[in-house]
Amino acid sequence: MSDGARQDARATRPQHHRSTLEDQESALRTRRRTPSRGAASIVGVPARPRVLVVSFSPIHTDARVLRQLGVVARHARVTTIGYGPRPEGSDEHLRLPDGAASLPETPRGVALLAARRWRTAELAAPGAQHALRLAAGRRWDAVVANDARALPVAHRLAAGAPVWADLHEWAPEERTHVLAWRLLVAPLMDHLCRVYLPRCAATTTVAASIADLYAARYGVRPQVMRNAAPWADLSPTPVDAPTVRLVHSGGAVPGRNLEAMLDVVERLGSGYSLDLYLVPGGDGGRYLRALRDRAAGIPGVTFHDPVPPGELPATLNRYDVGVFWIPPFNTNAAHTLPNKLFDFVQARLAVAVGPSPEMARVVTEHRLGVVAEDFTVDACAASVARLSRADVAGFKASTDAASRDLSFAAEATVAEGILDRLL
Question: Residue 31 — pLDDT band, cuts 50, 70, 90?
């Protein structure tokens, strides 16, 4: 019998692990009446709830998960599962081996994907197997799954506790510009969303347009919790240097059109500089090295080591214009509303972006900067070239005025509401 036939057969009979939201809330009420939550409590003082946060990322550098942890830690004792050292906000960290892939990339895993045996492939990734072993036999009051690939592990470890899925992007098309991912992994991501999202007690995502996609395909509309940075107590710096100082921070990931930034500053010529704070991607740094090689002959381009997310606004504050022109090479790129836009705001920079709808809406609504007519080098360069120093100073003043409205404080209320309901 095929995996699809097995799933159809399972769907015709009740299953205890496919609990509805009402079942989860009933179980939650039962747990609330049970005095065995977490560690033994001091007499008269209830023990703190225990929350597990699962993220197949180096959490200590993952800005969104770090902000999430800051909220969860106010409500519960937090255990994290992820790569790298213990992140801030975690009481206990179960560290995954650096080489343990989060997708089923082993020969057996690839064979399962090729055979479309998605149910069997759900937990076949080495990272998933390590996570299950590290957290075996533990009990949680709630579990947070960061991204779709964490859903099977989160639900298995939750053992009936409520699961909050925080979807950092549109999971079914995360990397569909890569042929192997599109053919093998995308169907698995679709399967995970279809099976597990309806079972989640709460779901969130990064932008309204992406929430619409989840609602249309899976019948689950996540709450929107944007990638806003915490408010930073900074002021705009004067625009009085001999050059207009452009800056970009983020991952050195192919497809993000970072080459265009180099071409733009070369096109603009003297009077402009570009500083880059780039985190090497998952390719061992090949793309970042290629960018460095390409920039070798361009005056005014400087590469810096990446800085921790919490230090970015203060580091970027001395620059003038934060830039990001990402073409819509896939659905996520088309709907992007990234961390870096909000980092630019907290750094009190003017902003220059392409006509990506979500970013353009924020930039236009708050008068933060300029939106290029299209994603060509000519259009992006023209959008910057038409800015006078007075324009740049005015936009920096606008980002300062909008800094509280566009900080994480507004987004944190979404997480607070979810945790108040689940714990």
Answer: very low
